[in-house]
């Protein structure tokens, strides 16, 4: 029986290529290459042929087999793709419907601003230190050159726990505590909660947050202070800005500064945010008073530096556009879950 | 303090800059300007003169001197007549200073034949501009001179002073005095007073006594310009919760060199508004003050400010402010500078640096980074962990809250503090109100209040706070950081799961729950559900509490849903935290999972069963996982069912089925040794 492999191959190829579904394809494949398939039969019959015929037909038969296997794979992939596509057709959903809500946690805006502030100062090599909220009169006042029975004390309305202890009215006592245990040069920031005995309103709270800064070295100057704080404000507000120093009075600094930042909205031109001033009052600062160095047994002739205390609540209010300081402590989730 | 633009103009020889320009100059070089307000043809400046400059700038003249330096305009101070006594019919006033150390200088004039009347228009206008009411010409002149020079004056009615003696002394216990404004003060012991032959006539430095006040019938006066110890005036005004402008000036302190100037000025004005003659001049000034001398190294200005100010500019500034440069040694750049006595705030070189810097202008200071060593800063582990904990709570889906550090009077009862626990609460000496009279001993009360507020809006609430709590231990004050989470919507077990999650994330492996004689450390024990709460421990150390809030507390707060909570001593838990992670190679050999279900009496604790399982199987148990805890009608009464997955796996070989069966059967046998426990097959 003459074996027309070529015809067989062509026939099989056409059949495979025109199969309409996977089952049909499989049947066709088996009809040629299955255990009882036509091509399989050819291959099986090779033993009955002469050596010459075997070599020639065997080669051809194997080539045909490989070709058909390839076509089968190709067709199978096409059909599969087609079938999956058709099955997906039935799986229509409304893709514009909202996603399923995940329970997300939130950090408090004051945590966020404190972290940001601390991060910027850490980038500039400042270490973070902390101190207690219940302070002695010595650390909160005397050591900071704020004597008893002096009107300067009225600048800090104080909650007293007894005649000697109080709730710290600023983070400045941390300066003293740190310097008592460390030698210069150094640069630190100290964030924390502070307290003021005063009536509350949109800008005043009985407890709020401050970030103290202190840098001491042989020749740390007001010009250094300006560079560092300018960088700080530029980074925190992610906008080019400048700072301006005005004279002020704090018993623990000399000279003392009131620090203004050029309004980031109008760049100094004057707008409603800065009350047309072009500048915004940011914090108090100054060059460390020699009496403070004396209180911690440094030699004031040898060391100098700057100190500052910025209100974090005010910074967060500006950064996030929160109009009332009391909102930070009111626990309203409608505010907190925006952060 | 209020300053009048027109009034200031009087002491400046040329035209002042426009009000807004002047305000800017002052604010950049001297004082914070609170407000500039037009009033008629005048402008009123509200200037924040802080205690360091009350010595010299509490009056218009002092402010004018500042303006003169800033503008370069000439200062033009008014003329004063010298005082000469004239023959008088009045007997001498005998002034005795008993409280010598508190009265550096006592100057006064006895003036005969004054006639108090309405003040002239110009005087009334000046006072009005400074916010002072006009009373009569005599009183008005004393106020005017104070507002002009910063030296408080006081006029006594000479004829009301009994026995013609005035003794300045300290008040004794329980003395009383009625002041000019009809207030009767019960004086603190030690306050300065003036006494005549029969009683108190003046609350020194603060307010005159009613009895010796000027009336329309006054004919003769004692006009006082004195200086007093600032501390005693400050203390007295604080103790009395009462102050006056004079008291504020005295409390900041003024120098003793200007009393006669003020009296001369007042006498000049008195002559302008009426007649009269000076019958007696009193001036008790035992220790004349000497002006201070400071040696300033002119290099210091640049060293501190970081900007070089030309030497001539420095000299101009200092001279303009009234400092005398006695000597300059060019070689060493050290100047010997004499401080005007009114500048009591200037006592050291740094003070002069401030004067030079601010007048020259802080705007001249460039921004310049310091050049420093790269040595890294110290790392605060406690700070790092606290922030990590915040992140973990956020990961667990909680929202961070900040509450007040305070507790109210009512909270003690509302949150179930017992007597013993109340003793630990720190009370404020000067609370603002009853709602904020104490310091919180734990975070839960204020968090519960937030739950009560938010429950109207939210079905599910998960909030946390990491903050300071305070307690009194014996007589000392303690504070520590606490972490509390609180939830509507989470069950007891879910909350416990949060605690496990926190500990696991912090590398703490040996946390356990101890329900034997549990006592929360700072929260009142009545706060916790009597059954659904348990103490959290690491090793032997108590680190907190987890559970549900007691039903009685919830009803006190009108909270309608069960609330689960935990509180942890943040410092203790952070102490156990581990930052290092060592990779554990997973076993290459397959794991087999067998389930086991045990029917037990209702009050059986799952740990007892888990301990038994783990104790029996030893190392080849990789995990025992409670996947179901069931009680229900299908089960016998008072029984519940625990179901566990037990994962068997060895690190060095594949376990055979026989091996696993043997151990599993042993577990069953051991469990069933307890007659109440029935393993369900």
Secondary structure layout plus pairing:
The complex is a heterodimer of chains A (339) and B (681).
Chain A: H1 5-17, H2 22-33, H3 38-44, H4 51-89, H5 109-123, E1 127-128, E2 134-136, H6 137-140, E3 165-167, H7 173-181, E4 186-195, E5 207-217, H8 222-237, E6 243-248, E7 253-262, E8 279-288, H9 290-295, E9 304-311, H10 312-320, H11 333-336
Parallel strand pairs in A: 1-4
Antiparallel strand pairs in A: 2-3, 4-5, 5-9, 6-7, 7-8, 8-9
Helix pairs in contact in A: 1-2, 1-4, 2-4, 5-10
Chain B: E1 2-4, H1 5-10, H2 19-29, E2 32-39, E3 42-48, H3 54-57, H4 60-71, E4 94-97, E5 105-112, H5 121-129, H6 137-149, E6 154-157, E7 165-170, E8 176-178, E9 184-186, E10 192-195, E11 200-203, E12 207-208, E13 221-227, H7 230-240, H8 245-252, H9 259-273, E14 277-284, E15 293-297, H10 299-305, H11 311-320, E16 324-329, E17 334-338, H12 349-360, H13 381-395, E18 399-400, E19 406-407, H14 409-414, H15 419-422, E20 438-439, H16 444-454, E21 461-473, E22 476-488, H17 492-505, E23 511-514, E24 528-538, E25 541-549, H18 551-556, E26 563-569, H19 570-576, E27 592-601, H20 606-617, E28 621-630, E29 639-648, H21 657-672, E30 678-680
Parallel strand pairs in B: 4-7, 18-21
Antiparallel strand pairs in B: 1-3, 2-3, 5-13, 5-14, 6-13, 7-10, 8-9, 10-11, 11-12, 15-17, 16-17, 19-20, 21-22, 22-26, 23-24, 24-25, 25-26, 27-29, 27-30, 28-29
Helix pairs in contact in B: 2-4, 5-6, 6-9, 7-8, 10-12, 11-12, 20-21
């Amino acid at each position: 029986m003459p074996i027309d492999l070529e015809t067989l191959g062509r026939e099989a190829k056409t059949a495979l290529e025109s199969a309409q579904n996977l089952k049909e394809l499989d049947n066709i494949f088996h009809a040629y290459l299955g255990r009882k398939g036509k091509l399989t039969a050819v291959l099986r019959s090779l033993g009955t042929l002469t050596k010459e015929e075997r070599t020639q037909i065997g080669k051809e038969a194997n080539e045909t087999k490989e070709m058909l296997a390839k076509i089968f794979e190709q067709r199978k992939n096409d059909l599969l793709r087609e079938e999956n596509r058709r099955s997906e057709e039935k799986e229509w959903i409304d893709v514009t419907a909202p996603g399923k809500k995940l329970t997300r946690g939130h950090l408090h805006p004051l945590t966020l601003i404190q972290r940001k502030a601390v991060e910027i100062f850490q980038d500039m090599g400042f270490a973070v230190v902390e101190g207690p909220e219940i302070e002695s009169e010595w650390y909160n006042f005397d050591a900071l050159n704020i004597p008893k029975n002096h009107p300067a004390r009225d600048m800090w309305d104080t909650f007293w726990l007894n005649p000697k202890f109080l709730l710290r009215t600023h983070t400045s006592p941390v300066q003293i505590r740190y310097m008592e245990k460390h030698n210069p040069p150094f640069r630190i920031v100290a964030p924390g909660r502070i307290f003021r005995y005063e009536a509350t309103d949109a800008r005043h709270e009985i407890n709020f947050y401050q970030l103290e800064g202190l840098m001491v070295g042989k020749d740390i100057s007001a010009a250094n202070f300006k560079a560092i704080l300018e960088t700080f404000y530029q980074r925190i507000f992610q906008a080019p800005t400048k700072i301006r120093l005005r004279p002020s009075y704090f018993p623990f600094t000399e000279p003392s500064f009131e620090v203004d930042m050029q309004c980031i909205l109008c760049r100094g031109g004057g707008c409603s945010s800065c009350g047309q001033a072009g500048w915004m009052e940011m914090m108090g600062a100054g060059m460390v008073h020699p009496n403070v160095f004396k209180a911690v047994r440094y030699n004031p002739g040898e060391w100098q530096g700057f100190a500052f205390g910025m209100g974090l609540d005010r910074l967060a209010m500006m950064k996030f556009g929160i109009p009332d300081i009391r909102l930070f402590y009111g626990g309203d989730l409608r505010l907190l879950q925006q952060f | 303090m209020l300053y009048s633009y027109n009034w200031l103009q009087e002491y400046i020889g040329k035209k002042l800059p426009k009000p807004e320009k002047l305000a800017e100059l002052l604010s950049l070089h001297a004082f914070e300007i609170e407000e500039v307000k037009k009033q008629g043809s005048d402008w009123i400046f509200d200037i924040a003169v802080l205690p360091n400059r009350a010595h010299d700038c509490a009056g218009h003249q002092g402010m004018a001197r500042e303006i003169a330096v800033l503008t370069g305009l000439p200062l033009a101070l008014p003329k004063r007549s010298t005082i000469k006594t004239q023959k008088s019919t009045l007997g001498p006033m005998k002034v005795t200073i008993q409280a010598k150390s508190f009265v550096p200088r006592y100057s006064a004039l006895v003036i005969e034949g004054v006639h108090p009347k309405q003040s002239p228009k110009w005087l009334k206008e000046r006072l009005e501009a400074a916010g002072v009411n006009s009373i009569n010409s005599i009183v008005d002149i004393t106020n005017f001179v104070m507002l002009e020079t910063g030296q408080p004056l006081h006029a006594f009615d000479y004829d009301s002073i009994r026995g013609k003696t005035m003794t300045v002394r300290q008040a004794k216990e329980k003395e009383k005095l009625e002041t000019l404004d009809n207030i009767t003060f019960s004086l603190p012991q030690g306050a300065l007073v003036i006494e005549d032959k029969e009683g108190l006539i003046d609350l020194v430095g603060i307010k005159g006594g009613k009895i010796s006040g000027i009336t329309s019938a006054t004919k003769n006066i004692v006009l006082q310009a004195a200086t007093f110890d600032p501390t005693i005036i400050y203390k007295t005004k604080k103790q009395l919760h009462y102050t006056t402008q004079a008291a504020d000036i005295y409390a900041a302190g003024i120098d003793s060199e200007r009393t006669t100037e003020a009296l001369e000025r007042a006498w000049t004005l008195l002559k302008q508004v009426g007649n009269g003659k000076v019958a007696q001049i009193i001036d008790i000034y035992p220790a004349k003050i000497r002006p201070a001398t400071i040696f300033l190294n002119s290099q210091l200005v640049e060293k501190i400010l970081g900007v070089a100010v030309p030497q001539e500019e420095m000299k101009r500034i200092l001279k303009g402010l009234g400092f005398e440069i006695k000597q300059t040694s060019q070689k060493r750049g050290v100047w010997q500078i004499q401080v005007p006595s009114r500048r009591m705030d200037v006592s050291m070189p740094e003070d002069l640096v401030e004067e030079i810097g601010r007048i020259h202008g802080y705007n001249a200071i460039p921004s310049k980074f310091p050049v420093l060593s790269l040595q890294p800063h110290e790392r605060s582990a406690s700070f790092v962990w606290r922030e990590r904990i915040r992140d973990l709570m956020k990961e667990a889906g909680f929202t961070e809250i900040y509450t007040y550090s305070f507790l109210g009077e009512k909270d003690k009862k509302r949150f179930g503090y017992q007597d013993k626990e109340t003793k630990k609460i720190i009370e404020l000496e000067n609370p603002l109100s009853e709602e904020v009279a104490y310091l919180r001993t734990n975070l839960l009360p204020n968090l519960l209040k937030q739950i009560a507020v938010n429950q109207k809006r939210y079905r599910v609430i998960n909030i946390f706070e990491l903050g300071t709590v305070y307690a009194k231990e014996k007589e000392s004050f303690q504070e520590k950081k606490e972490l509390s989470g609180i939830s509507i919507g989470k069950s007891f077990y879910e909350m416990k799961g949060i605690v496990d999650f926190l500990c696991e994330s912090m590398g703490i492996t040996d946390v356990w729950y101890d329900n034997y004689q549990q006592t929360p450390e700072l929260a009142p024990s009545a706060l916790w559900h009597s059954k659904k709460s348990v103490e959290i421990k690491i090793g032997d150390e108590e680190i907190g509490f987890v559970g549900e809030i007691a039903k009685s507390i919830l009803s006190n707060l009108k909270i309608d849903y069960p609330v689960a909570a935990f509180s942890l001593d943040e410092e203790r838990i952070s102490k156990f935290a581990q930052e290092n992670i060592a990779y554990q190679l997973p076993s290459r050999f397959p794991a087999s999972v067998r389930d086991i279900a045990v029917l037990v009496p209702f009050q059986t604790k799952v740990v007892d069963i888990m301990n038994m399982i783990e104790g029996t199987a030893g190392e080849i148990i990789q995990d025992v996982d409670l996947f179901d805890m069931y009680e229900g009608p299908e089960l016998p009464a008072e029984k519940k069912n625990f179901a566990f997955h037990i994962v068997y796996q060895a690190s060095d070989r594949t376990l055979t089925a026989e091996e696993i069966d043997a151990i599993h059967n042993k577990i069953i046998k051991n469990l069933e040794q307890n007659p109440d426990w029935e393993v369900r097959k």
